[in-house]
């Protein structure tokens, strides 16, 4: 399996970040990932969409610089690039995740 | 001229807000509008796109609940719905505008 490509810190843009977070499925995924302290197998986070659709969403999140994905054996492990995003756009992701939680708490997600 | 339709406070969604801000032209427009203390004629804010394209962008911003547009005679006047957005999604727009300014200060815009 080819290693995943990721944008460098300098390549991450604010509009790219906002676009990636502007989809309910992707925002929900990032919300779930943010509650975990370590990288997660992609299948460990429940999503309401087909696997192929989720692959697309993960690609958008990876290309926007929000998640890092690496393979280990046959598994893909995903983690948030929280420190980098916070360093680049202070307060943005935190405020978005707080607003997302206020609008639709994770417990209520199907 | 028909009055413009606007979403109510309850109809404004976080993903709609993020989507509307995820375009560089729209984000730049909101950045400019945020520096003004009062509503602006649409033509008063310089944009790098054709008038018809800007009409589309303004519609996206209006339908997302970010701007309010009203007509006065033959003029359309635009204002940010800053207080409502802050009440609904505390800190989000402020953090986004700060990050936008850090990434691309308004002075550097063409």
From TrEMBL, chains A, B:
Q: Where is the HTH arsR-type domain?
A: 6-100
Q: Which GO terms describe its molecular function?
A: DNA binding; DNA-binding transcription factor activity
* A UniProt-annotated Pfam family: HTH_20
Q: Which CDD domains match?
A: HTH_ARSR
SUPFAM superfamilies recorded for this chain? Winged helix' DNA-binding domain
The lineage's top-level taxon is Bacteria
InterPro entries the UniProt entry points to: ArsR-like_HTH, HTH_ArsR_DNA-bd_dom, HTH_MetalResp_TranReg, WH-like_DNA-bd_sf, WH_DNA-bd_sf
Q: Which UniProt keywords apply?
A: DNA-binding, Transcription, Transcription regulation
- Which PROSITE patterns does the entry mention? HTH_ARSR_2
Span-the-membrane segments of this chain are none
Asked if the record carries the keyword Ribosomal protein, the reply is: no
Q: Does the keyword Transcription apply?
A: yes
Name the PANTHER family on file: TRANSCRIPTIONAL REGULATOR, ARSR FAMILY, TRANSCRIPTIONAL REGULATORY PROTEIN
Q: Please identify the protein, giving its name as recorded.
A: ArsR family transcriptional regulator
What is the source species? Larkinella punicea
Q: What is the lineage of its organism?
A: Bacteria, Pseudomonadati, Bacteroidota, Cytophagia, Cytophagales
């Amino acid at each position: 399996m080819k290693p995943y490509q990721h944008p460098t810190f300098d390549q991450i843009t604010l509009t790219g970040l906002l676009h990636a977070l502007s989809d309910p499925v992707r925002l929900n995924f990032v919300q779930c990932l943010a509650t975990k302290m370590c990288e997660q197998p992609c299948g460990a986070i429940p999503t309401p969409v087909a696997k192929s659709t989720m692959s697309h969403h993960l690609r958008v999140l990876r290309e926007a610089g929000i998640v890092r994905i690496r393979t280990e054996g046959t598994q893909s492990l995903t983690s948030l690039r929280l420190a980098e995003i916070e360093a680049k756009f202070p307060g943005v992701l935190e405020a978005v995740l707080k607003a997302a939680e206020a609008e639709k708490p994770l417990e209520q997600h199907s």
